[in-house]
């Protein structure tokens, strides 16, 4: 991400400015989760964790949790950033996409600050007669820096997956951070219901949001330390 784009979303400097990234508490780990529904829409959530190593960092995080103005401004920036990626993916795939319901939530678990950035991404997966196909924007050079998880809709199963996930089960597919997802594709079909004899026969831009938010977090930490003189 270039310096101009970082400056354009500089409001994060008032939000993600506490501590450095570090080991998360056992109950929460850094993740990138795509939770699909049967229409091809998805709830996308990126989770960041920060080590709140001293009282000053813990107090700063608590202050941020109360700062509704900064949170609202950051949510607007998150929406805009995701929308740019969605527009590029829409142009590549020819499938209508849209971003709504951007949200930022800050919580704390002991000495770990947790920041969840989420959006509702409409039209992320293509719908077919049999089910769903998820590929772009993840198929074009996306390499997650944290666990990447795809959650299928209830009653769906993955019938073809590239590359193979490190873990899978109960409609959940997970790839380890650092996995190259070139040519990424998940094909999911609806499992036959109890009263159905058989299923019906069937007839890039890289994803930059995760890296953008991570870069902004690092910039924000630097801003905090310069301002506080640490």
UniProtKB/TrEMBL annotation:
Residues 34-156 form the DUF7345 domain. Keywords: Signal. GO terms for cellular component: plasma membrane; S-layer. Pfam families: DUF7345 (PF24036). This is PGF-CTERM sorting domain-containing protein. It comes from Halomicrobium mukohataei.
């Amino acid at each position: 991400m270039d310096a101009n784009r970082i400056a354009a979303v500089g409001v994060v400097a008032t939000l993600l400015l506490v501590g450095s990234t570090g080991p998360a508490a056992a109950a929460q780990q850094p993740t990138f989760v795509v939770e699909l529904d049967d229409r091809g829409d998805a709830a996308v959530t990126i989770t960041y964790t920060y080590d709140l190593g001293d009282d000053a960092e813990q107090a700063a995080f608590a202050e941020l949790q109360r700062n509704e103005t900064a949170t609202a401004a950051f949510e607007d920036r998150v929406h805009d950033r995701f929308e740019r990626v969605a527009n590029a993916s829409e142009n590549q795939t020819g499938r209508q996409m849209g971003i709504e319901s951007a949200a930022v939530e800050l919580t704390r678990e002991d000495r770990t600050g947790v920041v969840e950035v989420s959006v509702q991404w409409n039209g992320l997966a293509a719908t077919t007669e049999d089910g769903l196909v998820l590929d772009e924007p993840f198929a074009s050079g996306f390499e997650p820096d944290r666990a990447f998880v795809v959650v299928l809709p209830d009653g769906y199963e993955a019938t073809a997956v590239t590359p193979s996930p490190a873990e899978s089960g109960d409609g959940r597919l997970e790839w380890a951070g650092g996995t190259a997802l070139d040519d990424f594709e998940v094909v999911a079909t609806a499992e036959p219901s109890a009263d159905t004899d058989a299923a019906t026969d069937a007839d890039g831009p890289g994803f930059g949001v995760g890296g953008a938010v991570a870069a902004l977090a690092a910039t924000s930490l630097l801003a905090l330390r310069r301002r506080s003189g640490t």
